[in-house]
Structure formats: C-alpha cells, structure tokens
Design a protein that fits this description.
Keywords: Lyase, Pyridoxal phosphate. It comes from Halobacillus naozhouensis. Pfam families: PALP. This is Pyridoxal-phosphate dependent enzyme. By secondary structure, the chain is an alpha/beta fold. The chain folds into 2 domains: about 1-55 and about 150-320, Rossmann fold, CATH 3.40.50.1100; about 55-145, Rossmann fold, CATH 3.40.50.1100. The chain is built from 14 helices and 10 strands. The chain has helices at about 10-20, 30-35, 55-65, 70-75, 80-95, 110-115, 130-140, 155-170, 185-195, 210-220, 245-255, 260-275, 280-290, 315-320, and strands at about 25-30, 40-45, 75, 100, 120-125, 145, 175-180, 200-205, 255-260, 300-305. Strands 1-2-10-7-8-9 form a 6-stranded mixed sheet, sandwiched between helices. The protein has a 4-stranded parallel sheet with strand order 5-4-3-6. α6 (about 110-115) links the parallel β4 and β5 (about 120-125). The protein is globular. The termini are far apart. The structure holds pyridoxal-5'-phosphate (PLP).
Length: about 325
C-alpha cells in the first residue's frame, strides 16, 4: 500500500529540512466566517509564504533531499504556476541552477517573474506536454533532476508539514478544508492529520469544471478531462495516467469531495478581501466558498480552511469587484 511508503517520521524530517526556507505560517481565527457559518473557523495562511503559496514546502523538501551532487547539476520543472515559482525560488536560495520548461503560449508576465527569480526559461513547443517531454530529456541528457509538482513522496511530505503546524496551532480541529488538484496538498495534510486522529474530517474542494481528481476517484482510475477556464486556475492540470501516489493517498485520506461553482469561488475571494483585507487566488477562494456555503448550518465545530496562495493579478481582482 502506498500509505506504507509515507510515515510521520518522513513528515517531521521534512519539517526540519525546510525550516530555513519555509515560513511557519499563521493560523488565524476568522470572526467573519465563524459568525456567518455558526462554526469556529480558522484559516491557515499559506499566502504568507515568501513565494505566496504552499508549494514552497514540497519543492524545498524535494530539492533539499537530493544529494549535494545532484543539487549541483540543477533542477528542472515544467510548471509556470506556484510550483515553478517555488522551484526557482529554492534553487536561487541554494545557489543552484533551475530550468523551467514552458510552451510558447505562456504569457510574458509569467516568464518574466520566473526569470526575475533567476530561473533559466526554456521555451519549447506549443503545449504543456511538449514542455514536459523536454524537461525529461534534460534529465536524461544533462542530469538535472525534474521536480514534480505533486506526485512525489518528498513533495507530499513537504506539504504534510502544514498538518503538523495545524495540530500545534489548533489541536481541537474537527475538520480541514483543502483545495484539490493533483492531490499533493491533500495527501500530505490528510495523511498527517488522520495518522494523529482518524476522526478529523478531511474535505477536498475542486471547481465544478475540470475536477480531475474528483472524477478520477469516481471512475476508480486516473482519467483525463479537457481544461475549462476557471478563476481557480491553480487547480487545473491532470493527475497523470501513471499516477503513483496521490490518487491512492487522496482516495484513502479524503472523507468528502465537494465541487464549487465559479460564482462561489469569486464570492470566496471577495469575502477575504472585504473581511480580512487579503487578496488571495481562486484556489483559496474555492475553500472560502465552500465554508460560506454552510450559512448558519454550523454546530460550533472547529474547522480549518487552507488559504493556499495569493497568485492573483490586479486585473482579476478589479474584474471581481465590478461584479459586486
Ligand atoms: C497547486 C495548488 C493547489 C492544489 O495542490 P495539489 O497538490 O495539486 O492538489 C491549491 N492551491 C494553490 C494555490 C496551488 O498552487
């Protein structure tokens, strides 16, 4: 079983390994969400990480777990989102080479942000698959290590460090609400919390369209779905036909899988803007949208929502504000 490959010791090791690079993020009580829902709602603020998202944890743990020799050869990834940013950031902090492989469709703004972080950007082909193929070619030909965004035990263990912090900060937790895409975040946190107390409820949140993990679990095997534009853009992407870990771990550690409409995601983003003065991205908005949907239905349970990132641009925020 996959869950035998992971262990709490592995998560604690990750916590020690990443301590110099990763912030122990605040857990705040949300008066507004608590009043709205009738539960006691806390928010785990991964948007406070220096890169703006939790992906830093997994990337840092994976890269630091490589041998010094492998680190020197450099690291590569094919993600332009929060994972790509995290890999570039960690590489820069460690003074090693990073290459981000992208397709010609990736917007200039994203490319420049990666370059500013010191990454080499390799533009290859028309789509994400070309970029991914190229990344693995670099691994074969130049000995760089490809850092996967979720389906890797050290990445999962890195994300699991959130679970340890949440238990330290809020040992009374009854339920955690986690945005779900490839499932690295949910696998790590879910494993850590359930291994401490299996009664803690783990809820995964995906957008209604292109909810790949949700649909794959329903089918019983990893499937492909066409991507539809969504405000929760960090939750797009497949889980890989040859998924090794996160499909099984998500299946084992997730109690409820919920889908959230675009409208509810937008309301989630606006709610944090209004009540907490925080600009967060759609993936985090999806979690808030799910919490908001329980209006006055709560029974005082202690619920933690994972605010996973803040990678949202001003234009999107102002578009959202216009809909008010
Ligand atoms: C990657 C990401 C997620 C989803 O994490 P998975 O491990 O792929 O499930 C959620 N929120 C943000 C901001 C992300 O960057």
């Amino acid at each position: 079983m996959v869950s035998e490959l992971i262990s709490l010791r592995r998560i604690w090791k990750a916590k020690q390994r990443v301590a110099g690079l990763v912030l122990q993020t605040p857990l705040i009580y949300s008066d507004a969400l608590s009043k709205h829902t009738g539960n006691q709602v806390y928010l785990k603020l991964e948007n406070h990480q220096p890169t703006g998202a939790f992906k830093l944890r997994g990337a840092a743990n994976k890269i630091l777990s490589l041998s010094k020799d492998d680190q020197k050869k450099g690291v590569a990834t094919f993600s332009t989102g929060n994972h790509g940013i995290a890999v570039a950031y960690v590489a820069k902090q460690l003074g090693i080479r990073s290459i981000v492989c992208i397709s010609s469709r990736v917007p200039k703004g994203k490319v420049n942000r990666l370059k500013d972080l010191g990454a080499e950007v390799a533009v290859v082909g028309e789509n994400q698959d070309d970029a991914e193929d190229y990344c693995y070619r670099l691994e074969k030909e130049q000995g760089v290590s490809v850092i996967k965004p979720f389906d890797d035990l050290e990445v999962i263990a890195g994300q699991g460090t959130i679970g340890i912090e949440v238990l330290e900060q809020c040992p009374d937790i009854d339920e955690i609400v986690i945005p779900l895409s490839g499932g690295g975040l949910l696998s790590g946190i879910g494993y850590t919390l359930k291994s401490n107390d299996s009664s803690i409820q783990v809820t995964g949140v995906s957008m209604e369209k292109s909810a790949v993990m949700h649909e794959s679990l329903k089918q019983g095997y990893p499937i492909k779905i066409a991507e539809t534009p969504t405000l929760a853009d960090s939750l797009l992407g497949g889980i890989g036909p040859d998924n090794q870990y996160t499909f099984q771990l998500t299946k084992q550690y997730m109690d409820n899988s919920v889908l959230i409409s675009e409208k509810a995601i937008a309301e989630g983003v606006l709610f944090l803007l209004e009540h907490h003065k925080m600009a967060v991205e759609g993936a985090a908005g999806a979690v808030i949208g799910k919490l908001l949907s329980e209006k006055q239905k709560g029974d005082g349970r202690v619920i933690v929502g994972v605010v996973s990132g803040n990678n949202i641009d001003h234009e999107t925020v102002s578009e959202l504000l216009k809909t008010r």
